[in-house]
Amino acid sequence: MRFVLSLGDRAMLSMLYSDAIELYTCAIAFCCSDPLYHFNRAHAFYRLHKYVEATEDAEKSIHIDPNFSKVYDLLGLIYCAQGKYHDAIDQGFVKALELDPGDESFTRNIQFAHQKLGDADTAQEDQVIS
């Protein structure tokens, strides 16, 4: 299945998101318990602005591995794309940062969501904390 995953990754790099979804779907059909397959398909759905499907796959990935920090970050991005900045912070970015405090992109995403909410003070505090 790693070969199919690799093909899906190549499709993502080529911005062939529908092709990537098909490949990741094949991988999931053979091994539905790998959180990476659901994460990757969620990312492809996100790129196509299919946020319902992206959220479903992100949540499946979380169900399989609740300690997979990158999927929480992706969930935050999905919520941000829909203007759901509180959900992005609370259900996505903060959880990602708790699991991997060294990843500065999670902190930047929290700051971005706070700025979108017009909460400059909190965004500044987050910047100082990290």
TrEMBL record:
<dbReference type="GO" id="GO:0060090">
    <property type="term" value="F:molecular adaptor activity"/>
</dbReference>
<dbReference type="InterPro" id="IPR013105">
    <property type="entry name" value="TPR_2"/>
</dbReference>
<protein>
    <submittedName>
        <fullName>Uncharacterized protein</fullName>
    </submittedName>
</protein>
<dbReference type="InterPro" id="IPR019734">
    <property type="entry name" value="TPR_rpt"/>
</dbReference>
<dbReference type="GO" id="GO:0016020">
    <property type="term" value="C:membrane"/>
</dbReference>
<dbReference type="GO" id="GO:0072380">
    <property type="term" value="C:TRC complex"/>
</dbReference>
<keyword id="KW-0802">TPR repeat</keyword>
<dbReference type="InterPro" id="IPR011990">
    <property type="entry name" value="TPR-like_helical_dom_sf"/>
</dbReference>
<dbReference type="Pfam" id="PF07719">
    <property type="entry name" value="TPR_2"/>
</dbReference>
<keyword id="KW-0677">Repeat</keyword>
<dbReference type="GO" id="GO:0006620">
    <property type="term" value="P:post-translational protein targeting to endoplasmic reticulum membrane"/>
</dbReference>
<dbReference type="InterPro" id="IPR047150">
    <property type="entry name" value="SGT"/>
</dbReference>
